[in-house]
Structures are given as C-alpha cells and as structure tokens.
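Teaching note: in complex prediction, the entire set of molecules is handled at once rather than each chain in isolation. The prompt given to students was simply: 'Predict the structure of this complex.' The entities are:
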Amino acid sequence: MSKIAVLGERESVLMFRALGLETVFAESRETAVKELHRLAREDTSIIYVTEDLAQQMLGEIAKYKESISPAVILIPGKGGKLGIAQEQLRSAVERAVGADIS
Amino acid sequence: MANATINPTRMELTRLKGRLKTAVRGHKLLKDKRDELMKQFLEVVRRNKELRASVEKGLEQSNTAFAVASAVLLPEMLEQALLYPKQSVALEVGSRNIMSVMVPTYQFQTRSANAAEIYPYGFAQTSGELDTAVEGLGKVFEDMLELAQVEKTMQLLAQDIEKTRRRVNALEYVMIPDLKKNIRYISMKLEENERGNTTRLMKVKDMMLQQAHDFRPPAQ
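The expected output is the structure of the full assembly:
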C-alpha cells in the first residue's frame, strides 16, 4: 500500500484531510521543494501539488516526469486554476506528435 | 560515414548488406510501434482533458466553499474538525504495459464506502459550507485518482513516443541512406576492379600471343 499526498498552501490543502490523504503544508518555494523530494523519497505514489506552488518549482517537478513513481499532479489551489496543467498537457502533445494538434 | 574509411571488399559488402536488412526491418517495426503508441496516446490525451476539466471544476467549487467555511469558523475549530479523518484511502499501485512502456495503475479502497460517512466532525460546531466542501471533495476524489493515472500515463507515453520518433527518423534519414550509399560505392568499386582485371588479362593474352608466333590481332 502506498501513500497519496497533497502539497500546497495551508488554506488549499487542509480540506483534503477529510479524505484521509496526507497533507503537507508549504508556504515558500524552499519548503515546497524540500517536501516534494522528501515525499518522493518516502515512496509516495501520487503527489498532488497546487498550481500556485507548482509554478514556482516547475523544474523540480519536471524531474519526476520521466519516472513511473511518483506521479506529480497539479490541482487548482485557492487562487483558482492557473492553466499550468493544461499548458503542460499541450506541450506534451506537441513534444510527442511534433506539432500542436489540439 | 565517410567513404574513405570503408574497404571495398566483398566481405565488407556482405556485412553492409546484412546491416541494411536489419536497419530496414528495425525501421518498419519502430514505425509500427510509433503509430500504435500515437493511437493510444491520443486516446489518453482525450481522457486526460475530460478528467482535468471535471477535477478542476469540482476542486474550485470545494475551494470556494472551504474559503467561506474558514472565514466563518475559527481557525482552531477548523483545524480541530479536520484533525482526525474518518475516511482513509488504501492505494494499490500496479503497472500496465502499453507497447513496452510501463505505466502505473491505481486501485483504491476507501475505508467506508458510505458517502455520508466522510465528515470527520460533528455538525454542531461547524458551518454548512464545510460540509459542502468536504462533500464536493469526496465526489471529485475518484476522478482525481483517475486523473493521476491518466496524466502519468500521458507523460510516460509522450516521452516514449518522442524517443521512438527520433529513432525512426535517424534510421530513415541517416542510417539507411548511408548504408545504401556505401553498398553502392563498394559494388561500383568491385565492378571497376573486375573490368580492370579483364582488360589486363586481354592485354597479357595479346602480348603472349605476339611473343609466341609474332601474331597480330586483326586491326579493328
């Protein structure tokens, strides 16, 4: 059995506790990066990261793109959706197909 | 591959022909792999888009409700209400093989199947907005898990398609033309040697005949 974690600002993440997910608060880039790597090391299968936090550390998140675990998934945080996840989907399609088809 | 480095010998020719055969076969196989991966990929992308849209919508609703709840309730109360979750999720991670790309599959088991049992607090001290947030979250959670699976699959496939595409292109535009060029070069060289040899023999024959009995070939 493996873990699911949610990483983000306190206000965005607190409600996920009701689902029984592991919640990790991070307000700054440094803590977020540190926590992200810690979660990955501790064999967390899915890490949900709020987009507000993710946009500050896209490079760090990209490191986990190529490995099968963990899956780092962006979710909208308290600031609403920023469209980063959609942008990433678009660029992945572009990379694979060689042209933007969407 | 520079022409200067290859030996125009029969052995080299056979070797190159063998390599060309392998390259052509590999090219065909990789091309098939790429096409199939692409087919799967586009399906995954479509599903990913749907799921992302629904997850983002659900989470935004929950977020709004939760923002109201945290405005209404004391922070300590909120913390306390959510401190000890009633619900828990056991996640089972498997893997699936799509055209030799390993992608994860997630299977989850919630501790209580009853949707009404996810509230980890009594209703007396909390506001209705919190209930809305938690309820919405419970509904969107299944989609969130599938989104994780689909999005990871999408990323892994995209990466593998790129790799396969590069290989196909390298074979098609570099390896195969180079091999063909070299094979042509060697066979031309061998034919040229053969012709050179024939003329030499003819010349030697003439010389020998002349030596033997002063024979002259008929003038042409």
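Point out the following to students. The CA atoms of residues 27 and 171 of chain B lie 6 Å apart. Chain B touches chain A through 59 residues (CB under 8 Å).
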